[in-house]
Give the backbone structure.
Amino acid sequence: MTFSKKLFELLSSMRFAVSVLTILGIASIIGTVLKQNEPYTNYVIQFGQFWFDFFELIGLYDIYHNLWFLIILIFLACSTGLCIYRNAPLMLKELKAFRESASEKSLRSFSHKIELKSAYDKEETKERLLAFLTARGFRFKFKAQTDGSELIAAKAGSYQRLGYIFTHAAILIICIGGLMDGNVPLKIQEFLGHKQIETRDIPATEVPKISRLSVRNLSFRANMTLAEGSSANVAFERVRDGYMVQELPFTIALDDFRIEHYPTGQPKSFESDLVITDPELTAPIKKTISVNHPLIYKGIAIYQSDFQDGGSRLDFNVWGVLSATSKPFPLVGRVFGKSPLGEGADALQVEFNDFRKFNILNLSADGKGKPHNVGPNVTFKVRDAAGQAREYVNYMQPLQLDGKYYFVSGMRGTPQEDFKYLRLPADENLTVDGFMQLRAALFNKANHAEIAHRFALDAIKENDAQGKSRIQFEKSVQQLLGAFSEGGYAEIAKLIEASVPEKQRDKAAQTYIKIINGAAYQADLLVREKTGVKAASVEELVPGFLQDSLNAMSDLFFYGEPIYLQMTNYEQREASGLQLTRSPGKNLVYLGSVLLVLGIFAMIYIRERRIWFLVKPKAGAVVFAMTANRKNRDFEIEFEQYCDQLKKTLVN
Amino acid sequence: MTSSKHVSNENHQSFLQRLNWIDWLYAIVLTVSALFAFKQYAEFMDIYEISFLFGAVILFSVLGWSWKPVRLLVVSVAAVSVFSTTLYHADLARIDQVFLLKFLISSQSAIMWMNVLFFLATAIYWFALATRSEFSGRLASAITWSAVLMGFVGLMVRWYESYLIAPDVGHIPLSNLYEVFIVFCLITALMYLYYEQRYATKQLGGFVLLIVSFGVGFILWYTFDRHASGIQPLVPALQSYWMKIHVPANFVGYGSFSLAAMVASAYLLASNGLLTSRLPKLDVLDDLMYKAISIGFIFFTIATILGAMWAAEAWGSYWSWDAKETWALIVWLNYAAWLHLRLVKGLRGIMLAWWALIGLLVTSFAFLGVNMFLSGLHSYGTL
């Protein structure tokens, strides 16, 4: 055998097809288990540098669009194609053949045969047999035998054979369609170095030609994010850890993006009002697209895929939370923008990353309550002069937790961590002001003497004579307040460790906390006198407020930055995420799918059967033989029935 | 001796000629009902929904003509469901006020009845198998039918209830794991009942209803532990007429594959000398297994293709190598190989039975495991 013959044998063989399919199956499973197209840093963290490099080399991070995966598909297509080429002619021949040359001897060697007596003459017998065959959908042919007898060769269900051809052709066609959409030419260009992905974060116009795909590109699947009021004529195709710029033969502008919500807060619909302008058009096309309702123009389908912020304007009050200031200052920011805060060595930069108007959260303690909308939040990073950044997420409105209202802010040092949440208690007016005033009063060392004095007067009223112990008490209160304003409970713990013997520490801690609570109560009264608010204690209005405030103040020392951004207003600007695809293979895939279904139907539900009657007038007998290319239970039952029915047909 | 209706041993009349007056009456009732529904609700339906409405008339007519008990089932489901909806007076609060709704035919109650009846039927089928009691077998069969009736009533009423929550929340109950598990139980049980009649054997009921009971167990867990039985509004991606055909087609596939696996387990027991005298003959089991996988394979193929067409419309690509899609491909390849070996190579017996049984693992991973362990676009039913 020559090499090419051998290769042909191998490629068209069943075992080759099975091997290819097995590899395809395993590769596919790997692709579902290993999250595809994650940012590459995630993989490095997950696998470590060595395995990361190895997996990258074999392309595990985007398995389905790898050259080798496409090559497997090509092999599958070849194998199927050759299989058709090899077997189809024989199948078609079988489809036509009646096998009327069967001899009596061969008929008698069949496993399903019987000799029947006929009560009729030759013509009548033939007629009855033909009626029998016709009623059951058999087609037939005659052949006179040399001894005067006649053979009727019949068959039914021949189109079962087409099932094989259809299913195999379907797989071939689907593979070709899929390969067209898999964009093999681009893969090859990339392999040869004619095209290269871009990994830098630069404007689309600056992306060099080697990373740009022209409008003639056969197939692509690219994304575009359009803010309301903006337009674009390029889309981005994500490739591994970079992207390519896909040029479009038209410009898309976004007039408006809308999200509708159900009463429960879940999103109900996303809609984008698009305007398409094209020099070839006399008037621009205006069309609203939504999920499940794309727009197709020039063979490019435009889908609503997601949405994000498009640069909303945000207003904040900035509170210096570790200082004694009781007044905030305003800050204006824009999502994706940066705002400087402070100057010199303490200068900070706030980078706004996202704004969400709706947040559906389940805040019930046992997690069994219903999720509901808790209002807008903002995600931002605060970067210090050294370039270190912490990420924050702040909710605009107070959230109800365990029956009480808190302003919640999450903080984390790295994206891998979970957010740790700071809860600032809301005051009786559901604002953050009450807490901020109290904090300012307690963190202001100038107030400590006054607070301590009032507290001592209040606490040691009866023993007025012992002025000495009151002064002593005042002093310790001042000392505690001083420690608390420098580091919260942690600082007080240090104080206890330094000055109290180990055995008495628990007791001392309890006492100290009581004292801090009492001082906080006095501080609250002081604040209310100064601000002129009626002197009812906040504790009467919001139970637990003082304790929650003290906890929050203590937590502020672990909040990372000494500022709290309170969102006061926003002007939302949304951006719509569009997906643009050109898939010339789609119709081929659909055609293949139709063929596939037809083919499977034919293979399973058309049963090919052949019947031979050898009419022997001299013996007054008929030899009945039957066969099927698939002998199953149905066939056995049918043969029994035919025997019974034929006996009745041929008896007078 | 087993009957075999598909090869008629009387005269060879065509399918339509064999229909009797009840068949025609049934079809007329369906048509009139559809026309009534059309007259009432045409303004709320798009072209796809209208074609599904009349498509359903054809589908259920042919189904009822080919398998007569379906006629009674369809009419009963319709009658009980419509009766149930009249008790609501368009107010969901009446579920707790009206006796019949509270205890029998509100969607949750009906589904609970389905659960109980399926458990009961499973037990009685096993009892019938153990005692060779013909009466128990018939009883189990009747209870299974009742369970199917209650399940479908539950789904129909749930459909109605979803519109009572808010008109824009209303949708066909095929949108989350809770709902599709009910569909799974119903389809698997119905397919079993079909083969039970066709092969005149009730001995396999215990086996097949085991997997249905597993489904019921899941529904109970999902209801009581996860509180996930409530009706949720549809996310935008699911708001499509495709859902009405893609999901049922898929579950005919899953149901048949499960049925085949349970029959395979019976085959393996019988071929090892266990329960051999009580179970149907091996060739009957083999044939049943093949038939179930065939029908499942066709529906699974169609469902996957419909899914691809829907994906093209909703996600922008007919194939995204999403975890569910990929596992659907694996399941498809698995059964394609099974059928190929049987049809082309003529393989039979123990190996194929083992394969069908192990195939259930692959199938259930595609059905459930993907939702539990993998993430992707199909994340409508998370655990």
Residues 235-383 of chain B form one domain. The first helix of chain B runs from residue 21 to 41. The radius of gyration of chain B is 21 Å.
